[in-house]
Input
Amino acid sequence: MANLNYKCPSCGGPLKFDSNTQRLLCASCGNDYDPVALEQLGADGQTKEDSFSFDGYSGEEMTDGVVYTCPSCGGEIIGDENTVATKCPYCDNPTVMAGNVSGILRPDIVIPFKLTKEDAKKKLLEYYKGKTLMPKSFKDENKINEIKGIYVPFWLFDADAEGSASFRATKSFSWSDRNYIYTRTDHFSIYREGAASFENVPVDGSTKMDDATMEAIEPFDLSQAVPFGSSYLAGFLADKYNVDEKESEPRAGQRMKESITDYLRSSVQGYETVSPQQASAVTKNGKARYALLPVWLLNTKYKGETYTFAMNGQTGKFVGNLPCDKGKFWGLLLGIAAAIAVPLAFVVNLLMG
Ligand SMILES: [Zn+2]
Ligand SMILES: [Zn+2]
Output
């Protein structure tokens, strides 16, 4: 299976997917092309000659990576067995390792990037604003040393879930006469059960991606997903999954169970105290689709530490960790201690940003 470059049918220049127009753009001659039409033309595989191929990817295995050959210049592209899209370090052509997105490795759907690298930079600066505990020097834009647009492999699970939960709850009433105040507390034993159908519960299928970060930039709007075509990947990085559907299932089941339990809990209302006793849930009829979803990753280094930020490449939802200036932190705490009426939650909010 060949490695593919996307070349302009007019001038032969490299094509990259453009998030603004949702088309493949040639930087050399300015022509642009519809991704679906381009793939039907077969223009994607203009240079299908390749060194050799085996086992679903084409390349040569090394101890700590795989060498792919650039179909344009013959240069060596170092990746690993999961690499799906990257660019040639010699000629800068976006290259798609077609063997890693064909057969059972072919994604069902892709959400094309809607937001650009510039949008990601802008979002980071917005995120910095109002972070009073952040060292001033950190806010300098020059500190961003890497911004990568990555298609992250996800499994999207559909399943039916059934759950039940029991609670103990209380309600009290008070009244008084001339001598006493009376309080009556009623105790309730409450049982709830329910069923729900879940659609497209995402679980990231790459061990390279931090699960919590990936969950934090959800949700993705799947109504904008399109059938997979490898030309959408041109100009971005992409990895194939290395956690398969079966291995991802427990996480999806866990997410569905948590959500049905929360729902049952939310239906217990009108009591003074509610304490959950037991909860259980099962899922069935699970099936998954394989999707590539767009994520911008930003890395910054500050005082020897790496800070990573992630932005949903479709919606712009932004998450990250920030360094905290200890000097500023104590100054702020003392200021707050002086104003005794400030509730603790306010301090916590500031710390969590
Ligand atoms: Zn061109
Ligand atoms: Zn090349």
Summary: The radius of gyration is 26 Å.
